Amino acid sequence: MKFQHAIASAISLAVARAWAAPTDTLTIDTPSRLALFQCGLINITWHGGQGPYTLSVLLAGSASETPYDVYSNLRASPYTWNTNVQDGNNATLSVKDNTGALAYTSSIFVNGQDNMSCLKN
Q1: Closest Cα partner for 53 from 18, 103, 6, 11?
Q2: What are the extents of the domains in the chain?
Q3: Which of 22, 91, 87, 12 is nearest to 55 (CA)?
Q4: β-strand partners of 47
Q5: CATH code for the domain defined by 24-109
Q6: Sign of the C-alpha dihedral, residues 37, 39, 41, 44?
């Protein structure tokens, strides 16, 4: 009887730990190359992690560079980004959660269009 009680207690403890353990690894979806246009709106979607989130735009495909732009205190995914990167550039997006976890997209080419109203000076 003691053995059965010990087994039941161990199983209960394992289930409780599994329930409490964070299983949502932070990931970010890479937008389609055909969907990213200069000054175009695009939904940036991430999954997992713990909010609030910070979305950063990195140029030249390097995650170690100083961000070109940063959007802080985002509560939920998706975030509608006005692609303020000039056409012909490659951008990488990163999302950071409240715990410091980071996720990156692949490098994305920004396509051109006539609208230049959103570009930074």
Answers
A1: 103
A2: 24-109
A3: 91
A4: 27
A5: 2.60.40
A6: positive
Backbone angles phi, psi at 60, to 5 degrees: 65, 15
pTM attached to this predicted model: 0.75
Q: Which two tokens stand for residue 110?
A: 């920004």
Model pLDDT for residues 34-82, shown as the tens digit of each residue: 788 999 999 999 999 999 999 999 997 555 668 999 999 999 899 999 9
Summarize pLDDT for 52-64 with one digit per residue, the tens: 999 999 997 555 6
Higher pLDDT, 32 or 15: 32
Q: Which residue has the tokens 């353990």?
A: 21
DSSP assignment, residue 51?
S
Give the Cα-Cα-Cα angle 109, 46, 22 (nearest 5 degrees): 145
User: What is the C-alpha to C-alpha distance for residues 105 and 89, in angstroms, rounded to an integer?
Assistant: 15
